[in-house]
Amino acid sequence: MSKIILFDGVCNFCSSSVKFIIKRDKLAKFKFGSLQSKIGQELKNNTNLPENTDSIILIEDGKSYDKSTAALRISKELDGLWKLFYMLIIIPKPLRDIAYNYLAKNRYKWFGKKNECMLPSPEIRSRFLQDGQQ
Question: Which GO molecular function terms does the record list (predicted)?
């Protein structure tokens, strides 16, 4: 089963992060959906996360993870030395999330915001969830 990453589709930093992940996920372990899409909302609503969650969300093996935990679990699956970042999981989540929350709070100010979600290129379109698909 694929691992699903839900991300803020209008955030420039988030869209760049998705491109970064795709480039380092040669085995295509991850599928992607924007939080703004219908399927993104459905998947998010089926998680055990608070309703107002607007961070990156990783869904794998029926469990959902957000914020720094999602980012670190994603890094564990990437090609190259990015796997080493997973060692930071030993830091308690509240401490890890301080840095995550600071970046998330300022992401639009620092990196900008789009009016629409990113459109994937034809080469990677199959990795993005379409409404009505799960």
Answer: protein-disulfide reductase activity
pLDDT in tens, 38-67: 988 888 888 878 777 878 999 998 899 999
Whether 56 contacts 66, CB under 8 Å: yes
Taking the C-alpha atoms of residue 16 and residue 19, their distance in angstroms, rounded to an integer, is: 5
Looking at residue 131, its pLDDT comes to 60
Residue 62 phi, psi (nearest 5): 75, 5
Other C-beta atoms within 10 Å of 11: how many? 24
Contact 35, 46 (CB under 8 A): no
Task: Return the structure tokens found at 80.
Answer: 């190259």
pTM: 0.87
